[in-house]
Amino acid sequence: MKQYADGKILLETQGPVTTVTINRPEVRNALDNDAARGLGRALRDFDADESQLAAVLTGTDGAFCAGADLKAVADSAEYVAWAGDPEGPTNPTLSKPVIAAVEGHAVAGGLGIALWCDIRLVDETAVFGVFCRRWGVPMSDGTTVRLPRLIGAARALDMLITGRGVAADEAIDWGLATRRAPKGETRQAAEELAYQIAAFPQIAMRSDRMSAYRQAGQSLADAVAEEKELSQAAKAAEAQAGAARFAAGEGRHGDFGKS
Known about the structure:
Layout: E1 2-4, E2 9-14, E3 17-22, H1 33-48, E4 54-59, H2 70-74, E5 98-102, E6 105-107, H3 109-116, E7 119-122, E8 127-129, H4 143-151, H5 153-162, E9 166-167, H6 168-174, E10 179-180, H7 186-198, H8 202-214, H9 220-247
Parallel strand pairs: 3-4, 4-5, 5-7, 6-8, 7-10
Antiparallel strand pairs: 1-2, 2-3, 8-9
Helix pairs in contact: 3-4, 4-5, 8-9
């Protein structure tokens, strides 16, 4: 296990899967500046490790992340912008997928971290919300950009303006989360999903993922042209071999856990 920010962030690897854990249970895994930078370093280290293909991001003791540690912020002249600062944890989008395993609070900046992930998996205790609304703390973690793109402007504005909490069932209904696990089993379920993703041919999966991110704000013609450009490497390196395996009969088995 590797530690960052004096153990506030933990990184574990098993096979091709990395699990990054926010480890500040005494404050529901809220991040002070050191922990925020440590989380950013851990995530970028995962992205740079060629042996690691998918990651899970979670928190200790039944909480995901309660956002910025406001007590620490109140005592500091510095407040790291998590999405705008080069060392922030939600900047930039990585080249590989990250799954959020959410139990308990994913609120304020914790909501922003969950939104930054590709997939959000929850249990019945999960709650999302802009809980910093009452304290006058703005979102500077990408939430005001990612949330309306994910769930639509009307629902995003409801959350951003009122600060109300959105529990697991409503989050799934809105598309804020897409998968559910039994209580207390989100990490295990997320890691199982990460192993499944790691088993796929990687070039095509990553190019499709990046095309989905980059199409936002582009015209249809420009987005389709970029999709074509991004697909070329997979066509050259993976598609022919995959088609051959399909033709040989593997397509009949419907096993998405194999590459």
